[in-house]
């Protein structure tokens, strides 16, 4: 693969969700390992301990303790409850498989993995969105 360039842009999904007070209030609801987050209402002690910090009847990642990264509770394979930081890379795009920085296969990061986009129904508008995300104009 020598000579190939990979251009990758990670969106600020989690960073953009922070309030002025430093609490994450976005819509990411999956851990870094791909596990779905549990609803905060399953942990009423946290909801009561951190009022006004976005905890409620939803499974969105939060940082009520002002941790630098949003996190959530999830169910481990064993059935036990654990916590983990959230996957803030959802929707990232990259170009791969080319020796040029402005061409290649477009891939999107979803649910913990990269996957190629099918271009059979692309419009010029779709292409311009991806180009802007990649900083190509």
TrEMBL record:
<dbReference type="InterPro" id="IPR018056">
    <property type="entry name" value="Kringle_CS"/>
</dbReference>
<feature type="signal peptide">
    <location>
        <begin position="1"/>
        <end position="15"/>
    </location>
</feature>
<dbReference type="Pfam" id="PF00051">
    <property type="entry name" value="Kringle"/>
</dbReference>
<keyword id="KW-0964">Secreted</keyword>
<feature type="domain" description="SRCR">
    <location>
        <begin position="93"/>
        <end position="137"/>
    </location>
</feature>
<keyword id="KW-0732">Signal</keyword>
<keyword id="KW-1015">Disulfide bond</keyword>
<dbReference type="InterPro" id="IPR036772">
    <property type="entry name" value="SRCR-like_dom_sf"/>
</dbReference>
<dbReference type="InterPro" id="IPR001190">
    <property type="entry name" value="SRCR"/>
</dbReference>
<dbReference type="InterPro" id="IPR013806">
    <property type="entry name" value="Kringle-like"/>
</dbReference>
<protein>
    <submittedName>
        <fullName>Uncharacterized protein</fullName>
    </submittedName>
</protein>
<keyword id="KW-0420">Kringle</keyword>
<dbReference type="InterPro" id="IPR000001">
    <property type="entry name" value="Kringle"/>
</dbReference>
<feature type="domain" description="Kringle">
    <location>
        <begin position="24"/>
        <end position="91"/>
    </location>
</feature>
<dbReference type="Pfam" id="PF00530">
    <property type="entry name" value="SRCR"/>
</dbReference>
<dbReference type="InterPro" id="IPR038178">
    <property type="entry name" value="Kringle_sf"/>
</dbReference>
């Amino acid at each position: 693969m020598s000579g190939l360039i990979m251009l990758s842009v990670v969106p600020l999904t989690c960073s953009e969700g922070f309030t002025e007070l430093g609490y994450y209030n976005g819509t990411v609801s999956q851990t870094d390992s791909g596990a779905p987050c549990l609803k905060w209402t399953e942990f009423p002690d946290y909801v009561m301990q951190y009022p006004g910090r976005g905890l409620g009847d939803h499974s969105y990642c939060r940082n009520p303790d002002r941790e630098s990264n949003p996190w959530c509770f999830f169910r481990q394979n064993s059935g036990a409850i654990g916590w983990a930081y959230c996957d803030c890379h959802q929707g990232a795009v990259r170009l791969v498989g080319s020796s040029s920085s402005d061409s290649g296969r477009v891939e999107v990061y979803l649910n913990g993995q990269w996957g190629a986009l099918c271009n059979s129904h692309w419009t010029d508008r779709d292409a311009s969105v991806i180009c802007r995300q990649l900083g190509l104009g």
